[in-house]
Amino acid sequence: MAILFRRANGIYYHISHHRGRRVWRSTGARRRSDAEKFLLDLKVQVKPEEERLPARLTFTRYPPQWMSYGETNLAHSTILLYGEATRNFLRMIGDRDLGSYNTLDIERFKRSAPGMAVACRSCEKN
Predict the structure, then answer these.
(1) Are residues 78 and 46 in the same domain?
(2) Half-sphere exposure of 112 (CA within 13 A, CB side)
(3) Hey, which of 8, 9, 75, 124 has its CA 20 to 30 A from 107?
(4) Contact 83, 64 (CB under 8 A)
(5) 44 with 100, same domain?
(6) pLDDT (tens digit, 9 = 90+) per residue, 63-103?
(7) CB 54 within 8 A of CB 19
(8) Closest among 25, 27, 34 to 12, alpha carbons compared
(9) Which domain holds residue 63?
(10) 35 with 88, same domain?
């Protein structure tokens, strides 16, 4: 959904959504007709590939993306524990879109494998 409106400075702005984010773009026009012409020109420039939503991220495709962060910010032993926990989770719960997991899936994983979901024993006691 695109919105065209005029701000207090008299310039028309266009708000649209691109890849889940709100994008504000100044038309540079003080008249509505000029702003609408700018939008028509802009529509011609936008490629259909840019309007597509990104592919769904499944559980098996997420760890490699996260690993680049983990290697620079976490200890090697922590990365090994997280890797084991993710493999166990995948084996017990299954591979789906990340957005489709819910709290019940996590609780089922924690109950079915005590100690496998927790990275350290001291965390279990708290």
Answers:
(1) no
(2) 13
(3) 75
(4) no
(5) no
(6) 777 877 888 888 989 888 888 888 888 888 888 888 888 99
(7) yes
(8) 27
(9) 59-125
(10) no
Side chain identity at residue 30, one-letter code:
R
Alpha-carbon distance of 2 to 22, in angstroms, equals 10
Q: How far is CA 122 from the centre of its chain?
A: 32
Give the count of beta carbons closer than 10 Å to the beta carbon of residue 75.
9
What's the CA gap between 87 and 92, in Å, rounded?
9
Q: What's the pTM? A: 0.47
* 15 within 8 A of 46, measured Cβ to Cβ: no
Q: Could you tell me if 13 and 25 are in contact, meaning their C-beta atoms sit under 8 angstroms apart?
A: yes
Q: State how many domains the chain has.
A: 2
